[in-house]
């Protein structure tokens, strides 16, 4: 088995501009309700009353967004989560910063990669100072990546490159100087703490900045994605298979295997350790759940970075209201609402749990009762009086039965 050693590639140290989020709602023909979507400016009529404005804010219908990602090959991964997947950069005195491995932001100032990316080898006698490393963000490390200072790093103390199962605990943790959640457009991807035995036969989403040709001899600086089937799950590591088509390669070391876990949250389940030299067959990943106790020691990552985190007893809905999750006695609890023919929503006290469907035969397409538009959303019947805004209730190709302008 090869260790996916890094590529020593030159890259420029420059800073990206701040990302801005775009409005997800698009223009809807015949609709003049700005709270419901971007309206057709030429056709928009002024609101007729304060009651109309208040109703727009309270009862705006939500657009269904499904599989919005275009570059990842699995899951609905948000742009903010994609930015959390970056490169471990190393400073070479001859030509500057280069991407050597792949890394993932898993907490506001904590990045995870592979132990073999930093242990003394490749001619090094001692571990390099933290100042020689940085965390790079961007789709291409040769195209003005944004670099963040690393103040300290740790590789798992018991990792043994020469062990029979050398992928076990092939993990390193990097502490950044800055809290990256304070900048726009980035969201850490949480580490997995669930048992992953159920992943056998499933596909995981793999991503990295490694080589793109068999044998790993090209000078790649770009981020690429591939999905691979999990063919073996063992204590401390798991194996994926590219089936002779596509898999990780040199430079992808430390990169994440991603899976949306039963609580609806996308998590890092493993870090690339090594694999077949063909770069299209089997590869091994260190299981991060086996290293959590070490990662969460206060002298490593500054405290707990898995579990409930910001999740409270009030809870939240994930995956478009199909899963309810909440914190109970310090542990994440969840329920699959869709499997029980229920919907996730809050009760009168603001607790998000799976609730009964109160809509009966009424569905999201809704119906018109005179000037009243009625529809089902998250198991509840919602309605809007179209007449308050000088509109009529009618069929819309995008929103079912809803309020339309009289034009």
What order do the helices and strands come in, and which of them pair?
Layout: E1 2-3, H1 50-58, H2 79-83, E2 85-92, E3 96-107, E4 110-113, E5 133-137, E6 146-155, E7 172-176, E8 190-191, E9 203-208, E10 224-234, E11 237-241, E12 256-260, E13 266-275, E14 282-287, H3 292-295, H4 298-301, E15 316-318, E16 323-328, E17 331-336, E18 343-346, E19 352-355, E20 367-369, E21 372-377, E22 380-385, E23 392-396, E24 400-404
Parallel strand pairs: 8-13
Antiparallel strand pairs: 1-13, 2-3, 2-5, 3-4, 4-7, 5-6, 6-7, 9-10, 9-12, 10-11, 11-14, 12-13, 13-14, 15-16, 16-17, 18-19, 20-21, 21-22, 23-24
Provide structural commentary.
The termini are far apart. The protein contains 4 helices and 24 strands. Strand 20 and strand 21 (372-377) form a beta hairpin. It folds into 3 domains: 41-66 and 360-404, no CATH class; 76-301, Trypsin-like serine proteases (Thrombin, subunit H), CATH 2.40.10; 316-355, no CATH class. The strands form 6 sheets. A 6-stranded antiparallel beta barrel has the order 9-10-11-14-13-12. A 6-stranded antiparallel beta barrel has the order 2-3-4-7-6-5. It has a 3-stranded antiparallel sheet with strand order 15-16-17, with no helix packed on it. It is mostly beta strands and 407 residues long.
């Amino acid at each position: 088995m090869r260790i996916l050693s890094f590529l020593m590639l030159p890259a420029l140290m420059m800073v990206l501009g701040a990302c801005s989020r775009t409005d997800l709602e698009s223009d809807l023909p015949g609709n003049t309700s700005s709270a419901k979507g971007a309206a057709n400016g030429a056709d928009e009529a002024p609101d007729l009353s304060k009651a109309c404005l208040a109703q727009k804010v309270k009862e705006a219908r939500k657009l269904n967004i499904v599989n919005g990602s275009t570059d990842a090959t699995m899951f609905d991964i948000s742009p903010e989560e994609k930015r959390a997947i970056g490169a471990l950069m190393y400073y070479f005195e001859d030509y500057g910063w280069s991407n050597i491995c792949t890394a993932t932001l898993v907490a506001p100032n904590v990045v995870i990669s592979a132990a073999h990316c930093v242990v003394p080898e490749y001619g090094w006698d001692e571990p390099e100072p933290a100042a020689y490393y940085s965390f790079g963000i961007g789709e291409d490390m040769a195209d003005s990546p944004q670099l963040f200072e690393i103040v300290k790093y740790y590789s798992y103390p018991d990792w043994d490159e020469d062990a029979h199962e050398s992928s076990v605990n092939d993990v390193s943790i990097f502490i950044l100087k800055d809290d990256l959640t304070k900048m726009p457009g980035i969201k850490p991807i949480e580490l997995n703490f669930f048992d992953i035995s159920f992943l056998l036969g499933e596909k995981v989403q793999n991503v990295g900045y490694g080589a793109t040709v068999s044998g790993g001899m090209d000078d790649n600086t770009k981020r690429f994605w591939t999905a691979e089937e999990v063919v073996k799950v063992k204590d401390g590591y798991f194996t994926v298979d590219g089936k002779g088509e596509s898999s990780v390669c040199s430079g992808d070391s430390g990169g994440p295997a991603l899976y949306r876990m039963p609580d609806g949250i996308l998590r890092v389940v493993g870090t690339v350790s090594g694999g077949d030299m063909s770069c299209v067959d089997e590869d091994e990943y260190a299981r991060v759940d086996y290293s959590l106790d070490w990662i969460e020691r206060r002298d490593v990552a500054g405290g707990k970075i898995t579990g409930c985190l910001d999740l409270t007893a009030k809870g939240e809905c994930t995956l478009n209201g199909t899963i309810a999750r909440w914190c109970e006695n310090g542990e994440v609890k969840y329920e699959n609402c869709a499997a029980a023919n229920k919907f996730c929503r809050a009760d009168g006290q603001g607790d998000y749990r799976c609730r009964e469907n109160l809509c009966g035969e009424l569905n999201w397409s809704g119906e018109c009762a005179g000037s009243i538009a009625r529809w089902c959303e998250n198991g509840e019947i919602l309605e809007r009086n179209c007449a308050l805004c000088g509109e009529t209730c009618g069929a819309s190709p995008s929103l079912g039965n809803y309020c339309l302008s009289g034009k």
